[in-house]
């Protein structure tokens, strides 16, 4: 126990994780397996962890990583997943059907052992949370900084609270031996370690919501509304994604330049602060939900309908029918390949996982890369214990992999912009992401010698 401000006692943990997104939850799960449940691992999460209205396609690499951490956890998640057949693409101006793009499920299964799994956000975080001992997460508990102590332990600091004298004093939330920053795009832990500023705003805004699935929506196909020449970063797009269990997610991206043409402003800093990707979002089927805000006084729904006013009625009617409080609006951010540091992304007994370490562009890789982090971190800690050396070995392995993935994504984006056929790059991407993803299984607790 530790004393904060001379009064309240604060808890000491072997490992403290800041952030209970997929990266923090999976890292905690991996460390519990890697340390045979012999070390205390605790997560501090700033939100209340209510369900987020999002659908995630977990790539084969993410599934392989989960298998290495805990095969039972993977089986439980796969039991909830939808096997997506493919995507119907429609012309975003005329609404005309353009093509059906089949998922290469059988080829992936045969070649890589899995096909991609479509899951609800809360199914993923719920399963990961259920794998942790009860009481492993403190919610409503932001950590804004840390302080290295002379005895080698680390103090976790909460937001500064003003004292009666008017002076600001940061509260000590807990102490730990190892600190893992899993605090997403705008990670305060990253800022303290690397001091390299926020990620790059991708000049685009996303609106999304989870709603009960309309009758016309197929179980295993997504519906996309894209430019007649195919998706590109200068244009808007919209998608309906079916989820297992009767809901679906609608999601649409709008470049800021297009929003401006429609008379809509978006301030990326204010927008992120007030309506974060990391904020919580209930399904519309839930009764109490937090409303999203934006950088103007109009509602997210009004802004979405304005931004997508030229889109086909089938899309707009679904947005129109969505309860205001279910809609989230936020900017899109990314760390470019150059923003991934060369040597390490930690210092001493502090490291980073997930978007805090490597915010990917929204291309379906972010969550799977977070699961990869957890598997690799668990492996190095199993080999070298809870040591700075294990953290540096983890970072070295991850940095080369993340740079390769980000490099290929950048190449793909450039090819798409230049109108180059994507086929070969898609194969290259599958080989890199799925074929070259190998994780050593962590030793389960039951396998410990007596
Ligand atoms: C619209 C959209 C669609 C996506 N689709 C896919 C997809 O299909 N496939 C895929 O693989 N990836 C996808 N991604 C990417 C994926 O969502 C992220 O890569 C993934 O969520 C990263 O997990 P994380 O835990 O690192 O970060 P987050 O999910 O952002 O979690 C960070 C957590 O830290 C908490 N936190 C932040 N600051 C603090 C603090 N100071 N103190 C305490 N807690 C804090 C936050 O509240 C949050 O719970 C998508 C992303 C977006 C935006």
From TrEMBL:
Residues 270-296 are annotated as: Disordered. Keywords: Monooxygenase, Oxidoreductase. InterPro entries: FAD-bd, FAD-dep_Monooxygenase_BioMet, FAD/NAD-bd_sf. PANTHER family: MONOOXYGENASE, PUTATIVE (AFU_ORTHOLOGUE AFUA_6G14510)-RELATED. Coiled coil: none annotated. Residues 273-296 have a biased composition (Low complexity). It comes from Tetradesmus obliquus. It holds the Pfam family FAD_binding_3. It comes from the Eukaryota. Residues 13-196, 345-405 form the FAD-binding domain. This is FAD-binding domain-containing protein.
């Amino acid at each position: 126990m530790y004393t904060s401000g001379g009064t309240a006692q604060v808890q000491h943990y072997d490992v403290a994780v800041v952030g209970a997104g997929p990266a923090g939850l999976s890292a905690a799960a991996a460390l519990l397996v890697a340390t045979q449940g012999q070390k205390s691992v605790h997560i501090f999460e700033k939100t209340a962890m209510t369900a987020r209205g999002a659908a995630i396609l977990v790539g084969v690499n993410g599934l392989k990583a989960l298998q290495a951490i805990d095969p039972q956890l993977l089986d439980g998640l796969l039991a909830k997943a939808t096997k997506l057949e493919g995507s119907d693409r429609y012309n975003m101006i005329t609404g005309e059907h353009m093509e059906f793009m089949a998922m290469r499920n059988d080829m992936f299964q045969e070649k890589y052992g899995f096909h991609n799994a479509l899951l609800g956000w809360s199914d993923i975080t719920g399963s990961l949370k259920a794998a942790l001992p009860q009481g492993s997460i403190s919610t409503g508990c932001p950590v804004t900084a840390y302080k290295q102590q002379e005895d080698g332990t680390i103090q976790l600091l909460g937001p500064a609270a003003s004292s009666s004298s008017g002076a600001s004093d940061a509260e000590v939330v807990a102490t730990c031996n190892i600190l893992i920053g899993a605090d997403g795009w705008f990670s305060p832990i990253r800022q303290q370690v690397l001091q390299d500023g926020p990620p790059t705003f991708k000049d685009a805004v996303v609106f999304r919501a989870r709603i009960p699935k309309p009758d016309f929506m197929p179980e295993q196909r997504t519906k996309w509304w894209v430019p007649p020449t195919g998706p590109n970063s200068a244009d808007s797009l919209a998608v309906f994604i079916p989820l297992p269990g009767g809901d679906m997610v609608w999601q649409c991206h709008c470049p800021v330049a297009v929003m401006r043409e429609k008379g809509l402003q978006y301030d990326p800093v204010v927008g992120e602060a007030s309506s974060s990707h990391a904020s919580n979002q209930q399904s519309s089927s839930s009764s109490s939900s937090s409303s999203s805000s934006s950088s103007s006084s109009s509602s997210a729904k009004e802004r979405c309908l304005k931004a997508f006013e030229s889109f086909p009625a089938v899309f707009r009617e679904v947005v129109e029918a969505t309860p205001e409080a279910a809609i989230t609006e936020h900017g899109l951010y990314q760390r470019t390949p150059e923003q991934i540091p060369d040597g390490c992304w930690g210092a001493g007994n502090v490291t980073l996982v997930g978007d805090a370490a490597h915010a990917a562009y929204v291309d379906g890789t972010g969550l799977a890369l977070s699961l990869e982090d957890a598997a690799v971190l668990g492996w190095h800690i199993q080999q070298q214990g809870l040591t700075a050396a294990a953290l540096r070995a983890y970072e070295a392995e991850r940095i080369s992999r993340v740079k390769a993935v980000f490099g290929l994504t950048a190449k793909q984006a450039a090819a798409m912009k230049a109108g180059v056929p994507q086929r070969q790059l898609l194969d290259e991407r599958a080989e890199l992401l799925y074929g070259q993803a190998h994780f050593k299984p962590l030793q389960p607790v039951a396998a410990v010698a007596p």
